[in-house]
Amino acid sequence: MNREGRAGNDSASQTGKEKNKWQKRIIQYSPAKGSRIMSEAPLISVEEAQKIIAAFPVNVNSETVPLLTAQNRVLARDSTAPFAVPEFDKSAMDGYAIISGDRSPVYEIVETIAAGTPPRRSVGRGQCAKIMTGAMLPPGADRVVKRECTIEENGSMRIVAEDRNRNVRVKGEDIQVGQRVLTKGTRLRAAQIALLASLGIADVATAKPPRIGILTTGSELVDPGTPLGPAQIYNSNYYSLAAQIGDCGAAPVALGRSADDLKPTAALISSCLTRCDLLIVSGGVSAGDFDFVPTAMQQAGVTMHFQKIAVQPGMPTVFGGRGDKAVFGLPGNPVSTFVIFAVFIQPLIMRLLGHDFRPRMAKVTLGSGYRRSQAARSAFLPLRLRDGRAEVLVYHGSAHLHALSQADALLYVPAGQSEISSGSTVDVRCL
Ligand code: AMP
Ligand code: MG
User: Fold this and answer.
1) Can you give the CATH number for the domain in which 126 is found?
2) DSSP 78-109
3) Which of 359, 362, 365, 421 pairs with 41 at a CA distance of 20 to 30 A?
4) Ligand 1, atom 11, residue with closest C-alpha
C-alpha cells in the first residue's frame, strides 16, 4: 500500500516487502545498519556526541566583501590600524586653543580653525586660535579652553571661568598605528563595522558563509501557503532550521523534500551533498517503519559517527560524514530539531565560519522546582526568564512549538539528575 499518495512530487514509496528486502540486504552485505536495528546503535552521552562533532575537520573559506556586506559575518583575518587614532592632536571641544600655563588677561584670536581644515598659523603667548571640536590643534597650542568659560569681543578672548580640562585628544590615544584592533573570528556587528570604517577600511576578508543544506523528509508535510489535506501537517522544520542557520550567519540551502522511501532518499542525500558544505536531513531517523534516513545516509556513502544520543529531546539524532561534508539526521519532532540544532549543529557551523563560539550562558534562579520520573537521559528544558527568575515551560512533548516560542533559554539537566529544587541557582544557555 502506498502511503505517499498525497506527497505531490515525492517519488513512490516502497512496499513493505520491498523494504524488508532492503533491510535484509543492508544487514547482510553492508556493515551499515538499517533503521530497523537502530535500537542496537550505541547510546552515547551529550558530551561524547559534542566531542565527536568537535573533532570533525572543517575548512574555513574566506572572501573579501564590501564593509556593509560584512555585517554579521566573521573576520577571516586580524584587522590592524593603518594609522594612529586620532591621527593628529585635536580639540575635544568648541573653544580656544592656547599654550598651557599662559595666564594672559586677554588673548588675541589669530585664526578660526574648523574641523577638516588644517591650521595656518601657530599660537604664541597672549594668543589663541578659535577652534571647533575635531579640528587640528595649531602649532604651539596644547590645550583648549571651552567656549562656555570665555567671552569673545573685538577679535580677542578673555577667560571668565576656570576650565580644568585640557580638552585635547592626543595623537594615538585611542589606537596606535599597526595595533591589532579586531581579531580573526570576531563577528562584525555595528560597533565593529564602525571601527573598520573609522580606519578607512572599505573591504574586509570574511569567512564565506558556509552553505547549509536542508533536506526534509516526511510524506505528511506541506509547505505553509498551501492548504492542508487530511492527515497532513505543515513543514515547520525547514523554516526553523533555515532561520537558525541564518542567525548563525551561514547560508541555508533549500534542498527540497523527499518521500519516506529509501532509494530516492539515498539518491537525494548523495546529490544534496554536492550542493552544500554541511547537510541536515530532517525526519526519518527514528525506529518507525518509514524511517529510512540512517540507512539512506550509509547508502549515499556517509560514514556514521554516532546514531543515538542519550538526550531528551532528540535521542535518535545521527551524525556522519562523507569526505569533508558533515551530515546530521534529526528526528522530525520540531522541538527536537530546534534543540539539537542549537546544542550540536550550531557549534560546527560556527567552526565553518572560523568563529570562536561559546554559547551565551546566564545564572538564574529557578522560580519553581523541577522533577522528572526518568533520569537516564540528559535533558534540555525550555525556560522563560522573567526578572532574573526562570520558569520551566510546561511542555507537552517534542512537538510543542508553542512552549518553545515562549522560551528564552535552555536548562541542561544532566543524566542521573531527577530534580532541581525551587530557588536553586542554575546555569542556562540563552537562546
Ligand atoms: P519522524 O522523525 O520523521 O518520525 O517525525 C516525528 C514527528 O515529527 C512526526 O509527528 C512528524 O509528522 C513530525 N515532523 C517530521 N518532519 C517535520 C517537519 N519538517 N515539520 C514539522 N513536523 C515534522
Ligand atoms: Mg517522518
Assistant:
1) 2.170.190.11
2) -EE-SS-BSSS-EESSSEEEE-TT---SSEEE
3) 359
4) 332
